[in-house]
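Researcher: Here's the sequence for the chain we discussed earlier.
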Amino acid sequence: MARSSAIGPARPHPPAGAGAGRPGSLALPDEDRVLSPRTGYTRAHWEATADALLDAAWRWASPRGALLHLPGAPSAAGVRSDGLEGFARTLLTAACRVAGAGGADPQGLLERYAEGLDAGTRTPGAHDAESWPLVLDHDVQGQPMVEAASVALGLRLTRPWLWDRLDTAVQDRVEAWLRGALRSLPAPSNWYLFPFTVAGFLESVGRGDGHTRRVRERALGLLEAWYRGQGWYTDGDGRAFDHYNGWALHLYPVLDAHLSGATGPHAERLREHLEGFGLMFGGDGAPVYLGRSMTYRFGAGAAVALGAVTGHTPLSPGASRRILSGCLRYFLDRGAVGPDGLLGLGWHGPHAPTVQPYSGPASPYWASKAFLCLLAPAGDPLWTEVEAPAPSEGPDRVLALPAPGFLVQSTGADGLVRVHNHGSDHMRPHHGESAEQEDPLYARLAYSTGTGPTSAANPADNDFALMWRGGRGARRRIHPLGAGHGDGWGWAASWHRPVFPGGSPVLPALRVESVVVARGRDELRVHRVVGAPEGAWAESTGWAVGPEQRLESRLRPLRGWTALDRPCAPAGTAFTSWARVPRLTGPVSGTTVFAALAALAAGPGAQDGPGSPGSPGSAVETVETVETVEETDVTEVIEVAGHGGALTVRWAGDGALTRIAFDPLTVTHDEDTNAAEPRWEPR
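Model: Thanks. This is the structure I predict for it:
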């Protein structure tokens, strides 16, 4: 069969704008509660979702389909780059759809992409209706490098039905454009895996050379330098642990090895990663809202899909599908797909704080990586095994991950998962610490599947800060002090240097040491301030929840606090349009120890509602002294040794003891108060 520039005659697609007014609800098959008792979703639901998203996106294609100009404000990279992003990211969805069906393509998807490949690479860099932008250095014109990886991966997955049927001249032009990714400088992060992926494709089709080999060796060497253990990589130098572990740092090398039949350490690292990451999806399917690019939504399941397809996973096929389908359904049920049938920028629906400067209208289609699950054929156990409970749906668990500095806490009764952050700050080693650049996506002490961080302009949730001379000391660079867990409990700790706005950002010798001990739904939060100036005040906040959420946020003083209030966060979070944040305050000087008990739990929707005290419809702002705050029935402080000494807490109910000491930091927990030697974890 002779090759052609496109596979058969190009199918016409509706002109740009034809999708306006299209119903946002997807036409999905009936639920199957026998095979999928928890979500009702099957492989057919994934196929139907992919088909609908692709159909809606292609309504905004250029005349020959090289650029998909989805409606919306442009990213920092510009309109042409955004159009390439639409092409490349939807190509990855289409590739998973067609490859997973053994090449079956009744919608003629690959015909369209073949035509777009031909048109986009004829005159790269030209300012016409079809030409793709050139791939240049990350600080010049870098976004096309990201999209080059998706183009290369899509071509690799569909080689027999797309690449092999292109005219040789088109193949040559596509290669020439892709090689721009090999020549250009990536951003100092997961971006090095984009030319790695391009090089892997070129080698797989017999177009490799010394340049492709060096690019791949460079990326694999950086992965070794960035690996921190327990299946976690930092995203570049420093400490940046987030969802890029799954949808980039594991995905590209593991999938590359799977497609080529190569061996290496990356597969086992994925398995170890999923031991902890598999717990980071709530009973409602939501992933933990932590870090940047959360507009990729159900793309958070990419590592779970990759593990299921390659076999490198500790999760059963039924549990893997439960997580994947639960995550997909979580977003489809909450407005992630708009009236035009497109994935919009945001979380549930539109949400501006979730959007980064590099986010464009097609950016949410990075979620296409979750469709890797379709590479498992219909007869695979991933699709035939009955859904099993997700890890968060079992007994309460507390899991320490010292490598990233996380403590994962899940409660089976409400399906909530919390991640206490004592290790991820997204700061490069050469970055200076600035209070003005505090990032809510990394600076907070905890994140969850049911709450999102408040905006930088509102009171910070899950925060400990010092107030001095009208300034607030920000948590910027996080220094882990350790983490550990036992049966039903765990701890994590870190220290930071408060950074103040203005001309004197750092005070000599001032530092804050923070420890959390999790047990059930409760969080014992202890902070030791060292070197505080006279006249300083400390404040600690809990979880931010809104009146429409059926969640309760509790914060109780145990040591050092003198007042409690609940300021509002009018900008809300990704989960609610308006929120309140419980806040404790108290004076501090020299070395002082503070302790409080926090909890996030499902409730009867009893948070402040409109018209109630402290609600949006009320002028009441409740402020209480500690003497008037209701005494907690959960814990009591039974011993506090002098300045900076140990703090011991007895838990109500079973009388278990937790002891936190400093210099050096030790955390001990004893369920049996008659035991001779309590368990402990050193720094």
